[in-house]
Amino acid sequence: MRIMLEYLSMLSPTLNLQVGDVKSIPLVDADRDNIEKMVQDNIDISKEDWDSFETSWDFQHHSLLRKVSTISEAFDQWQNECEDRFNQMKDNEEELNRIFIDIYGLQDELTPEVEDKDVTVRKADLGRDIRSFISYAVGCMFGHYSLDVDGLAYAGGEWDARKYVSFPADKDNIIPICDDEYFEDDIVGLFVDFVKTVYGAETLDENSKFIADGLGGKGQPKDVIRNYFLNEFYSDRCKIYQKRPIYWLFDSGKKNGFKALIYMHRYQPDTIARIRTDYVHEQQARYRTVIADLEQRIANASTGERVKLNKKLTALQAQDAEIRTYEEKIHHLADQMISIDLDDGVKKNYAIFQDVLAKIK
């Protein structure tokens, strides 16, 4: 409240407050019931706001999961809820200011109005909320969350497949991120399946466009979503979780020759070996096939078409060279069959595999 902040700033201009400073605030016992009700309302509003984000221990499910057929409808409902919370908290804070200004006779010193920037609950934000929806979807892909269970579905311990009926978790805990649809469990394909499961197949195109618009990309919706996963998703996760990601990105380098996510809490000693044999080797074989096909097409292409195909060939050859180097690194780790201790935390465990994981920035 404004009066308390003014008093405390006079008492301790540096805001290096001690318990005794707060206890010294003079209180007048007036209108207690009304004051306590509004204070409790604001506490409840703040907790409801905080619990709607993944970083809360009491997070239950994403706010855009609603019984509607489009994500735009879900966002509109969420936006209205946020606006109501925001306005209610602002009204309560201004009313509390009025009460205390009257109690302490400070009408000539202070006004009760509160600026929007000083209201501590969040309004809806399309870009942020679409990104958090994507993050939640990835959590469901790994079984960290489930459409059938509120809160955390898995964070270590015994795995229970019965929790994942509506949207099954990825079986091998390895989800590739490719610049094309090379694998059945490609992350973009899984995300499309997730959107269909939540909102229905009939509105998939509309929902994909809304999501792509929320990401701010240009082009076909699926391409925008794929580019987000390739170039921005992991850095967003690291920022949210203060550089302690529980989803780890295996990354060959800047050419995007190979990328795949795993969920730390489902890691097994043979995970690296399976990444190498089931994904890295498969990707290498695909590159060889596509490169050979392109070389044949270039030999028979017109001059204009040849320029375009040569550009694509150069990019693929760079990816092929990058993944070849990466395979050697991951081979060394795969042979060791390394175990990890979850109690050691993210930072220590991540460092074990730092040569084959994305750098956390």
Short description:
With about 350 residues, the protein is mainly alpha-helical. The chain has helices at about 1-10, 20-25, 30-50, 70-105, 125-140, 185-200, 205-215, 220-230, 235-240, 270-300, 305-335, 345-350, and strands at about 175, 245-250, 260-265.
Question: Topology, pairings included?
Answer:
Elements: H1 2-11, H2 19-23, H3 32-50, H4 71-104, H5 126-142, E1 175-176, H6 187-199, H7 204-215, H8 221-231, H9 233-240, E2 247-251, E3 259-263, H10 271-299, H11 303-334, H12 345-352
Antiparallel strand pairs: 1-3, 2-3
Helix pairs in contact: 3-4, 5-6, 7-8, 10-11
Chain oligomer state: single chain
Q: What is the N-to-C succession of helices and strands?
A: HHHHHEHHHHEEHHH
Count of domains = 2
Main sheet characteristics: 3 strands, antiparallel
Shape: elongated
Task: State the end-to-end distance.
Answer: 37 Å
Query: Treating each run of at least 4 consecutive H or I residues as one helix, how many helices?
Result: 12
Overall residue-averaged pLDDT value: 92
Number of E strands: 3
Structural class: mainly alpha
Spatial arrangement of strands, main beta sheet: 1-3-2
Helix content: 40-55%
Low-confidence runs (pLDDT<50, min 5 residues)? none
Strand content: under 5%
**Rg of Cα set:** 26 Å
